[in-house]
Specification:
The protein has about 180 residues and is mainly β. About 5% of the residues lie in helices and about 45% in strands. It has a five-stranded mixed sheet with strand order 9-16-15-11-12. A four-stranded antiparallel sheet has the order 4-3-6-7, with no helix packed on it. It is rod-shaped. It binds calcium ion (CA).
């Protein structure tokens, strides 16, 4: 009598964040299964051994369940994605000095990781003055020079909202001329 071995599931997911969302590559290093079924927790499924899946909302938590079977022998495993915190991966200055001396002349947000670099490319930024009036809205990758319609804005404290696909980051930046 031939006994089917129990399939062994060993998940080693690799995360990538970009403007499409959260991409997870599941590298199943377990023993081969005759049949494997993935439920990604977002309504999508797969029967690949080691699928790659893009989750549209990286700020959400998804429960991924996998069932593997060799005939009557089955095994299952689950895995939960973690919400993504982009704030710690950005270097956000708190002052800009737009006087053309090439030092802090614009509000330049720098990524500390390659994942954050991807997110900066699809992020938006909105800036308000101290009275709550919006003075700028645009692409995050474009460095803001504390001007509106080509006119210099006065010195002072401004409030910003950075909106990446993953998370909103709010704070203050001071313009010093
Ligand atoms: Ca400067």
């Amino acid at each position: 009598m031939k006994v089917d071995p129990q399939p062994f599931i060993n998940l080693k997911p690799a995360y990538t964040y970009n403007c499409d969302g959260l991409k997870v590559a599941f590298n199943n290093t377990g023993s081969p299964a005759q049949q494997i079924n993935w439920d990604f927790g977002d309504g999508q499924t797969s029967t690949e051994l080691s699928p790659t899946h893009v989750f549209s909302d990286p700020a959400a938590t998804y429960l991924i369940q996998v069932n593997a079977s060799n005939g009557a022998c089955t095994n299952k495993s689950s895995f939960q994605t973690q919400p993504y915190d982009v704030y710690m991966q950005l270097n956000i200055p708190n002052v800009l000095t737009p006087n053309n001396d090439k030092v802090n002349d614009c509000f330049e947000i720098l990524p500390l990781t390659s994942a954050a670099a991807d997110l900066l490319n699809c992020g938006k930024i909105t800036i308000f003055d101290r009275w709550g009036k919006m003075v700028h809205q645009g692409e995050l990758k474009n460095c803001w020079k504390a001007e509106v319609s080509g006119k210099d804005l006065p010195e002072g404290v401004y409030y910003y909202i950075i909106d990446t696909k993953v998370q909103k980051v709010k704070g203050f930046v001071t313009v010093v001329r």
